[in-house]
Amino acid sequence: MDLNEETQKLGGNALFRYALVLLGLLLFLLSQGILTWKSTSARDASGKVEAVQFEIAMLEKDIEESESSDDKKKMREEIDDLRKDDLKKARMEAAEESVDAKTGIWFWSMARLKAVGIMCLGFLVIAAVGSSHEKIGALVAFALLVTKL
């Protein structure tokens, strides 16, 4: 069996040569998207707490500047409502999102590392059985992945 026949049997089909790279890339994008979504939702929830606190601070500033006692009374009631309802709900939501962001983070971090490993293996397969220009490209991509780790 000559080298050409062996290459055809090992990975002559481009789909098989690139299957590991594509599988690794899909897994990497999925895990990275989920990790980004989890951290973003936790930050958004903490931003809601800060928004309610900012609204309370603005109302307190308006109370100091207001001359009417009726307006001051209404603003104080509004501040009490914000503290009792909105701030409490926002803090609970932020705590829930923070816990949710931490659950499963280990699994998705490991999935991301596994995806990088699968992509590296795919590039090594391409470097082993691909054509000359595929070998060069695969080795360059492999080197870039390894240096980014």
In short:
Helix 2 runs antiparallel to helix 3, helix 2 packs antiparallel against helix 4 (105-129) and helix 4 (105-129) runs antiparallel to helix 5.
What does this structure look like?
This protein has 149 residues and is mainly alpha-helical. It has one domain (3-148). It has five helices and no strands. The longest helix has 52 residues, at 14-65.
List the keywords.
coiled coil, single chain, mainly alpha, 149 residues, membrane
Give the helices and strands, then pairings.
Blueprint: H1 3-11, H2 14-65, H3 69-102, H4 105-129, H5 132-148
Helix pairs in contact: 2-3, 2-4, 4-5
Question: Helices and strands: which structural class?
Answer: mainly alpha
Integer-rounded radius of gyration? 28 Å
* Secondary structure: helix percent: over 70%
SSE ordering: HHHHH
Strand count? 0
**How many helices in DSSP terms?**
5
Average pLDDT reading: 83
Integer tally of domains? 1
Show unreliable segments. none
Compute the separation of the termini in Å: 39 Å
The main pleated sheet reads as: none
The coarse overall form would be: rod-shaped
